[in-house]
Amino acid sequence: MSANTPRTAGVSLIGVPTDIGAGSLGARMGPEALRVAGVAQAIRHFGIDVKDCGNLQGPANPWAAAVNGFRHLDEVVQWNRLLHEATYAELRSGRMPIMLGGDHCLAIGSISAVARHCRDTGKKLRVLWFDAHADFNTATLTPSGNIHGMPVACLCGQGPKQLVEIGGHVPALSPKQIRQIGIRSVDPGEKQLVHDMGIEVFDMRYIDEMGMRHAMELALALVDANTHLHVSLDVDFLDPTIAPGVGTTVRGGPTYREAQLCMEMVADTGRLASLDVVELNPALDVRNQTAELAVDLIESLFGKSTLMRKASVPA
Fold it and tell me: What CATH number has the domain bearing residue 278?
Protein backbone atom coordinates (compact mmCIF):
# COMPACT_ATOMS: atom_id res chain seq x y z
CA MET A 1 0.00 0.00 0.00
CA SER A 2 1.50 3.34 -1.04
CA ALA A 3 1.88 6.38 1.25
CA ASN A 4 -1.00 8.05 -0.55
CA THR A 5 -3.40 5.10 -0.49
CA PRO A 6 -6.50 6.12 1.49
CA ARG A 7 -6.43 5.15 5.17
CA THR A 8 -9.35 2.75 5.55
CA ALA A 9 -10.27 -0.62 7.03
CA GLY A 10 -11.52 -1.57 3.60
CA VAL A 11 -13.72 -0.56 0.71
CA SER A 12 -17.41 -1.42 0.39
CA LEU A 13 -18.99 -1.39 -3.08
CA ILE A 14 -22.69 -0.50 -3.02
CA GLY A 15 -24.52 -1.06 -6.30
CA VAL A 16 -27.56 1.16 -6.91
CA PRO A 17 -29.12 -0.05 -10.16
CA THR A 18 -31.63 2.65 -11.03
CA ASP A 19 -32.15 5.42 -13.56
CA ILE A 20 -35.06 6.78 -11.55
CA GLY A 21 -33.82 10.38 -11.65
CA ALA A 22 -32.55 10.42 -15.23
CA GLY A 23 -33.99 11.50 -18.55
CA SER A 24 -32.91 8.37 -20.40
CA LEU A 25 -32.97 4.70 -19.49
CA GLY A 26 -29.84 2.61 -18.99
CA ALA A 27 -27.92 3.92 -15.97
CA ARG A 28 -29.50 1.09 -13.98
CA MET A 29 -26.95 -1.19 -15.71
CA GLY A 30 -24.01 0.93 -14.53
CA PRO A 31 -23.07 -1.13 -11.44
CA GLU A 32 -22.69 -4.35 -13.43
CA ALA A 33 -20.66 -2.61 -16.16
CA LEU A 34 -18.25 -1.32 -13.51
CA ARG A 35 -17.98 -4.79 -12.01
CA VAL A 36 -17.31 -6.30 -15.46
CA ALA A 37 -14.63 -3.65 -15.97
CA GLY A 38 -12.89 -4.94 -12.84
CA VAL A 39 -13.51 -2.27 -10.21
CA ALA A 40 -13.06 -4.64 -7.25
CA GLN A 41 -9.88 -6.21 -8.64
CA ALA A 42 -8.41 -2.78 -9.43
CA ILE A 43 -8.79 -1.64 -5.81
CA ARG A 44 -7.56 -4.94 -4.35
CA HIS A 45 -4.36 -4.41 -6.33
CA PHE A 46 -3.44 -1.76 -3.73
CA GLY A 47 -3.67 -4.25 -0.87
CA ILE A 48 -7.09 -3.00 0.24
CA ASP A 49 -9.85 -5.31 1.41
CA VAL A 50 -12.86 -4.97 -0.91
CA LYS A 51 -16.35 -6.10 0.06
CA ASP A 52 -19.00 -6.08 -2.65
CA CYS A 53 -22.27 -5.44 -0.83
CA GLY A 54 -24.23 -6.31 -3.96
CA ASN A 55 -27.08 -4.18 -5.25
CA LEU A 56 -29.70 -2.34 -3.27
CA GLN A 57 -33.26 -3.32 -4.16
CA GLY A 58 -35.60 -0.40 -4.73
CA PRO A 59 -38.70 0.49 -6.75
CA ALA A 60 -38.86 0.12 -10.51
CA ASN A 61 -38.76 3.12 -12.83
CA PRO A 62 -42.38 3.97 -13.78
CA TRP A 63 -41.21 6.30 -16.59
CA ALA A 64 -43.96 8.78 -15.81
CA ALA A 65 -44.39 12.49 -16.43
CA ALA A 66 -43.40 15.11 -13.86
CA VAL A 67 -45.87 15.91 -11.08
CA ASN A 68 -45.52 19.38 -9.53
CA GLY A 69 -42.11 19.76 -11.11
CA PHE A 70 -40.64 16.39 -10.08
CA ARG A 71 -40.44 13.08 -11.92
CA HIS A 72 -40.70 9.93 -9.83
CA LEU A 73 -40.34 11.78 -6.51
CA ASP A 74 -41.63 8.96 -4.30
CA GLU A 75 -39.32 6.41 -5.95
CA VAL A 76 -36.34 8.79 -5.79
CA VAL A 77 -36.96 9.24 -2.07
CA GLN A 78 -37.10 5.47 -1.50
CA TRP A 79 -33.85 4.80 -3.37
CA ASN A 80 -32.03 7.60 -1.56
CA ARG A 81 -33.22 6.51 1.86
CA LEU A 82 -31.99 2.98 1.15
CA LEU A 83 -28.63 4.29 -0.03
CA HIS A 84 -28.30 6.68 2.90
CA GLU A 85 -28.68 3.86 5.41
CA ALA A 86 -26.34 1.53 3.51
CA THR A 87 -23.65 4.21 3.16
CA TYR A 88 -23.94 5.32 6.77
CA ALA A 89 -23.62 1.72 8.02
CA GLU A 90 -20.37 1.20 6.08
CA LEU A 91 -18.93 4.51 7.33
CA ARG A 92 -19.76 3.61 10.93
CA SER A 93 -17.90 0.33 10.52
CA GLY A 94 -14.79 2.23 9.44
CA ARG A 95 -14.99 1.34 5.76
CA MET A 96 -14.94 3.48 2.64
CA PRO A 97 -18.23 3.31 0.72
CA ILE A 98 -18.10 3.47 -3.06
CA MET A 99 -21.51 3.99 -4.61
CA LEU A 100 -21.81 2.39 -8.03
CA GLY A 101 -24.67 4.21 -9.79
CA GLY A 102 -27.15 4.63 -11.12
CA ASP A 103 -27.95 8.25 -11.88
CA HIS A 104 -26.70 11.29 -9.98
CA CYS A 105 -29.88 11.88 -7.96
CA LEU A 106 -28.44 9.12 -5.73
CA ALA A 107 -25.80 11.51 -4.39
CA ILE A 108 -28.53 12.91 -2.14
CA GLY A 109 -28.49 9.61 -0.24
CA SER A 110 -24.76 8.96 -0.26
CA ILE A 111 -23.58 12.49 0.57
CA SER A 112 -26.22 13.10 3.23
CA ALA A 113 -24.88 9.94 4.92
CA VAL A 114 -21.30 11.20 4.62
CA ALA A 115 -22.32 14.56 6.09
CA ARG A 116 -24.10 12.79 8.96
CA HIS A 117 -21.00 10.72 9.66
CA CYS A 118 -18.83 13.86 9.64
CA ARG A 119 -21.14 15.50 12.17
CA ASP A 120 -20.87 12.36 14.34
CA THR A 121 -17.08 12.28 14.21
CA GLY A 122 -16.22 16.00 14.16
CA LYS A 123 -14.63 15.78 10.71
CA LYS A 124 -14.59 18.59 8.19
CA LEU A 125 -16.25 17.65 4.91
CA ARG A 126 -15.09 18.59 1.44
CA VAL A 127 -17.12 17.41 -1.57
CA LEU A 128 -15.53 17.47 -5.01
CA TRP A 129 -18.31 17.39 -7.61
CA PHE A 130 -16.90 16.36 -11.01
CA ASP A 131 -19.66 16.98 -13.54
CA ALA A 132 -20.59 18.69 -16.80
CA HIS A 133 -23.66 20.08 -14.99
CA ALA A 134 -24.13 22.09 -11.80
CA ASP A 135 -27.10 19.91 -10.75
CA PHE A 136 -28.65 22.85 -8.92
CA ASN A 137 -32.06 22.87 -10.60
CA THR A 138 -35.30 23.19 -8.69
CA ALA A 139 -38.90 22.35 -9.58
CA THR A 140 -39.44 25.91 -10.80
CA LEU A 141 -36.23 26.02 -12.86
CA THR A 142 -36.17 22.64 -14.59
CA PRO A 143 -38.22 22.01 -17.73
CA SER A 144 -37.90 18.21 -17.38
CA GLY A 145 -38.44 17.51 -13.69
CA ASN A 146 -35.57 14.98 -13.78
CA ILE A 147 -34.19 14.86 -10.25
CA HIS A 148 -30.66 13.93 -11.39
CA GLY A 149 -30.42 17.65 -12.21
CA MET A 150 -31.22 18.63 -8.61
CA PRO A 151 -29.01 16.76 -6.10
CA VAL A 152 -26.72 19.66 -5.16
CA ALA A 153 -29.73 21.90 -4.63
CA CYS A 154 -31.38 19.24 -2.44
CA LEU A 155 -28.23 18.71 -0.39
CA CYS A 156 -28.07 22.48 0.17
CA GLY A 157 -31.69 22.53 1.39
CA GLN A 158 -33.33 23.67 -1.85
CA GLY A 159 -35.83 20.95 -2.76
CA PRO A 160 -38.79 18.85 -1.65
CA LYS A 161 -39.05 18.17 2.08
CA GLN A 162 -38.79 14.39 1.63
CA LEU A 163 -35.36 14.73 0.00
CA VAL A 164 -33.78 17.61 1.90
CA GLU A 165 -34.55 15.95 5.24
CA ILE A 166 -32.81 12.65 4.44
CA GLY A 167 -30.12 12.33 7.08
CA GLY A 168 -32.02 14.37 9.66
CA HIS A 169 -30.18 17.67 9.18
CA VAL A 170 -31.28 20.53 6.90
CA PRO A 171 -29.34 21.47 4.95
CA ALA A 172 -27.20 18.34 4.73
CA LEU A 173 -24.39 20.43 3.27
CA SER A 174 -23.20 23.99 3.39
CA PRO A 175 -22.42 25.36 -0.09
CA LYS A 176 -18.96 26.21 1.29
CA GLN A 177 -18.21 22.48 1.56
CA ILE A 178 -18.62 21.88 -2.20
CA ARG A 179 -16.23 22.46 -5.10
CA GLN A 180 -17.59 21.85 -8.61
CA ILE A 181 -15.14 20.98 -11.39
CA GLY A 182 -15.62 20.68 -15.15
CA ILE A 183 -19.01 22.44 -15.34
CA ARG A 184 -20.04 23.51 -18.84
CA SER A 185 -23.83 23.16 -19.12
CA VAL A 186 -25.93 25.28 -16.76
CA ASP A 187 -29.42 26.73 -17.19
CA PRO A 188 -29.63 30.55 -16.71
CA GLY A 189 -31.79 30.41 -13.58
CA GLU A 190 -29.66 27.61 -12.18
CA LYS A 191 -26.51 29.69 -12.77
CA GLN A 192 -27.96 32.57 -10.78
CA LEU A 193 -28.94 30.26 -7.91
CA VAL A 194 -25.44 28.74 -7.79
CA HIS A 195 -23.98 32.26 -7.61
CA ASP A 196 -26.45 33.28 -4.91
CA MET A 197 -25.61 30.20 -2.81
CA GLY A 198 -21.87 30.88 -3.07
CA ILE A 199 -20.72 27.54 -4.42
CA GLU A 200 -17.14 27.57 -5.70
CA VAL A 201 -17.20 26.47 -9.35
CA PHE A 202 -14.21 25.70 -11.58
CA ASP A 203 -15.96 25.56 -14.92
CA MET A 204 -14.34 24.65 -18.23
CA ARG A 205 -13.74 28.31 -19.09
CA TYR A 206 -11.76 28.66 -15.87
CA ILE A 207 -9.89 25.43 -16.56
CA ASP A 208 -9.12 26.53 -20.12
CA GLU A 209 -7.72 29.84 -18.87
CA MET A 210 -5.93 28.77 -15.69
CA GLY A 211 -5.25 25.05 -16.16
CA MET A 212 -6.53 21.97 -14.39
CA ARG A 213 -3.65 21.87 -11.91
CA HIS A 214 -4.46 25.36 -10.63
CA ALA A 215 -8.18 24.56 -10.41
CA MET A 216 -7.50 21.41 -8.41
CA GLU A 217 -5.05 23.16 -6.09
CA LEU A 218 -7.80 25.63 -5.20
CA ALA A 219 -10.45 22.91 -4.95
CA LEU A 220 -8.25 21.01 -2.48
CA ALA A 221 -7.08 24.05 -0.51
CA LEU A 222 -7.25 23.61 3.28
CA VAL A 223 -7.86 19.84 3.06
CA ASP A 224 -6.02 18.48 6.08
CA ALA A 225 -5.79 15.49 8.42
CA ASN A 226 -9.25 16.23 9.85
CA THR A 227 -10.93 16.37 6.43
CA HIS A 228 -13.24 13.72 5.01
CA LEU A 229 -12.83 14.07 1.25
CA HIS A 230 -15.78 12.85 -0.83
CA VAL A 231 -15.57 12.57 -4.61
CA SER A 232 -18.80 12.52 -6.61
CA LEU A 233 -17.79 11.54 -10.15
CA ASP A 234 -20.39 11.89 -12.87
CA VAL A 235 -18.83 10.29 -15.93
CA ASP A 236 -20.32 13.03 -18.12
CA PHE A 237 -17.60 15.19 -16.54
CA LEU A 238 -15.35 13.64 -19.19
CA ASP A 239 -15.30 14.68 -22.82
CA PRO A 240 -17.69 12.42 -24.76
CA THR A 241 -14.93 11.52 -27.25
CA ILE A 242 -13.39 9.39 -24.48
CA ALA A 243 -16.55 8.61 -22.47
CA PRO A 244 -19.55 8.10 -24.77
CA GLY A 245 -21.52 5.92 -22.36
CA VAL A 246 -23.60 8.64 -20.69
CA GLY A 247 -27.10 9.96 -21.29
CA THR A 248 -26.23 13.66 -21.09
CA THR A 249 -23.05 14.19 -23.10
CA VAL A 250 -21.66 17.74 -23.35
CA ARG A 251 -18.78 18.52 -25.67
CA GLY A 252 -15.69 20.29 -24.43
CA GLY A 253 -14.94 18.31 -21.28
CA PRO A 254 -11.62 17.37 -19.71
CA THR A 255 -9.18 15.20 -21.63
CA TYR A 256 -7.96 11.83 -20.42
CA ARG A 257 -4.83 13.37 -18.91
CA GLU A 258 -6.70 16.26 -17.28
CA ALA A 259 -9.07 13.77 -15.66
CA GLN A 260 -6.17 11.61 -14.50
CA LEU A 261 -4.46 14.66 -13.02
CA CYS A 262 -7.60 15.42 -10.99
CA MET A 263 -7.66 11.92 -9.55
CA GLU A 264 -3.91 11.84 -8.91
CA MET A 265 -4.07 15.13 -7.02
CA VAL A 266 -6.91 13.78 -4.89
CA ALA A 267 -4.80 10.68 -4.21
CA ASP A 268 -1.85 12.86 -3.21
CA THR A 269 -3.87 14.24 -0.29
CA GLY A 270 -4.36 10.76 1.17
CA ARG A 271 -7.78 11.94 2.42
CA LEU A 272 -10.23 10.24 0.06
CA ALA A 273 -12.87 8.67 2.29
CA SER A 274 -15.93 8.04 0.09
CA LEU A 275 -16.81 7.99 -3.60
CA ASP A 276 -19.76 8.09 -6.01
CA VAL A 277 -19.43 6.88 -9.61
CA VAL A 278 -22.63 7.75 -11.45
CA GLU A 279 -24.42 8.23 -14.77
CA LEU A 280 -22.59 5.42 -16.57
CA ASN A 281 -25.06 4.19 -19.21
CA PRO A 282 -23.86 0.94 -20.82
CA ALA A 283 -26.72 1.08 -23.35
CA LEU A 284 -24.99 4.09 -24.91
CA ASP A 285 -21.40 2.87 -24.49
CA VAL A 286 -18.98 1.31 -26.97
CA ARG A 287 -17.59 -2.07 -25.81
CA ASN A 288 -17.70 -0.93 -22.16
CA GLN A 289 -14.97 1.66 -22.75
CA THR A 290 -16.55 4.27 -20.47
CA ALA A 291 -16.76 1.80 -17.59
CA GLU A 292 -13.14 0.80 -18.18
CA LEU A 293 -12.12 4.45 -18.15
CA ALA A 294 -14.03 4.99 -14.90
CA VAL A 295 -12.15 2.09 -13.32
CA ASP A 296 -8.89 3.55 -14.64
CA LEU A 297 -9.72 6.82 -12.86
CA ILE A 298 -10.63 4.97 -9.67
CA GLU A 299 -7.19 3.33 -9.76
CA SER A 300 -5.65 6.79 -9.90
CA LEU A 301 -7.76 7.86 -6.91
CA PHE A 302 -6.19 4.98 -4.98
CA GLY A 303 -2.63 5.88 -5.87
CA LYS A 304 -1.78 4.75 -9.39
CA SER A 305 0.31 7.55 -10.87
CA THR A 306 2.57 8.32 -13.81
CA LEU A 307 4.65 10.61 -11.56
CA MET A 308 8.36 9.90 -12.02
CA ARG A 309 9.65 12.31 -9.39
CA LYS A 310 9.33 11.53 -5.69
CA ALA A 311 5.84 12.45 -4.49
CA SER A 312 5.39 14.45 -1.30
CA VAL A 313 3.78 12.56 1.55
CA PRO A 314 0.70 14.23 3.12
CA ALA A 315 0.97 15.27 6.74
Answer: 3.40.800.10
